[in-house]
Amino acid sequence: MNIFLKKIGILVISVLILGNLLSYLSLWALRQGNFYKPSFLVNGVTETDFDYIVLGASTGLTTLDTQVIDSLTHKNGINLSVDDTPISSQYLMLKHFLAEGKSTKICVLAPSITAFDDQTNRINANDYRFLPFIDRSYVSDYFQSYSGTDARLLSNSRYLPIMGVSYYNAEVFYPSILSVFQPKRRNRFDAKGNYTYPFKNSNADLIENRNTIRVEFQNTDLKKIKSLCDKEGIVLLCYISPFKTAKVNTSNSIYNIINHSDKLLRANYFYDDIHVTSIGRQLISEIFAEDIRPYFN
Question: Do 114 and 60 meet the contact criterion of CB atoms below 8 Å apart?
């Protein structure tokens, strides 16, 4: 019986050692590539000084085309938005950006509209994309600041990488293999960090009877971003993206705001209620290029 238990113990320890070694190598491979935005910022972005950056969720990712904006303003920007992320994740991306020794004059924050007032305190499902940088204090501190299974697994991955890699295996392990053989491959964004939804339909009808949504800018992580921007001498600009079925009213606040919620007037500019198509992106990026000009001065 003792011999059997000893063999089982040796097997378990061997599996743990091998699993942690593979997990470490997996995170290392992702850290060397461009597949996810945090790694792309480190390996795929050679510039250090920007006129503006875009942080946000899928709305920021697909609405503001930095290539169009740059061509019209003659400025240099990059889109660091990550789909399906709250403002807390965007705060982490800003810290990641600054930790890389990069700078910007303007930070455009373009989350989902409801995120500006969201008070939910939980880790995001896509925060695993920062897992390759778990050894950095601002990343590990971020994971440790949350409770719940996901947060504990990510936080403990600093010492046992198998915990996070095995939990997010499809999102971490397989992309890490791609990163070994195709280190420059990116996960649905171009060399300037942008992505677009395709043209969906030819319905060019005017949009009528939009509902009204009020935004108060009460999110606590938004206040953290504002504080960090103030500390770094960065102008924070809150961007409200186009909305097919609603327009947004904003209260007086301490934030600079560009509100494009009702700027697009026709249905064929939208892929769904909150995402624009490629032609909608072109038009709204041109409008945004004009509206951001005063902030460069």
Answer: no
